[in-house]
Write a structure and sequence with these properties.
single chain; globular; 2 helices; two-stranded antiparallel ribbon; 14 strands
Length: about 200
């Protein structure tokens, strides 16, 4: 299966800003007893096995032990309702790690699939603010961090990260956060976030 995807992603997790899971390559304990995270991927343009998947969004919800590298992740996936059955199948193979690429490094950590749902997804990049609304299941907005004492300065970033999306991620915090999906219910308002472009191929 040959494929190439380009777009942007953001996440919001239950750790305080900045997340020790991200900065340690998943080997340090989360700030809470469970790491509960949402990762939203918007494909700006892409093709999987000749199928155009541009403009579609995939959202991954995960509940993991405090040390993420220990495995035993519980994961659910929401597919963009705008995706055709063929597009959803192809995207599911890539984001499930079955088609190689960056997500394949995460799949061995997953021990329980909570399911896959289809829902309307609204994904917005608006300057420093990034948001996703997934039907009635998820509503999150994060904002990239600029130091208050230097409001005209650059967004702060982490570099050299071991992360499937990108090795450089913004530091961000959630302005709003509500998740009620796959039997999981949590709100990570004021908690950690990251944003980055991604460009994958296999």
């Amino acid at each position: 299966m040959a494929w190439q995807l380009e777009g942007t992603y953001f996440e919001n997790c239950s750790c305080d800003m900045v997340c020790p899971c991200t900065t340690s390559g998943l080997t340090m304990r989360a700030d809470t007893d469970r790491c509960q995270v949402v990762l939203a991927f918007h494909v700006g343009k892409g093709e999987i096995d000749g199928v155009d998947v541009g403009g579609k969004t995939v959202v991954v919800v995960a509940d993991t032990p405090p040390v993420m590298s220990d495995g035993n992740w519980r994961v659910g996936v929401v597919m963009d309702a705008a995706a055709s059955p063929e597009q959803a199948e192809k995207l599911g193979a890539v984001f499930g790690g079955h088609a190689g690429g960056p997500m394949a490094m995460v799949s061995p950590l997953i021990t329980e699939m909570l399911g896959m749902e289809s829902a309307p997804i609204e994904y917005v990049d608006d300057g420093r603010r990034h948001s996703v609304k997934v039907g009635e299941l998820i509503d999150i907005e994060i904002e990239d961090f600029v130091p208050p004492l230097n409001p005209g300065g650059e967004v702060e970033r982490l570099t050299g990260m071991f992360h499937p999306a990108n090795s450089t991620l913004t530091i961000a915090k959630a302005n709003r956060s509500r998740v009620d999906a796959f039997g999981l219910s949590f709100a990570n308002v004021g908690k950690n976030g990251h944003w980055a472009p991604f460009s994958w191929a296999s």
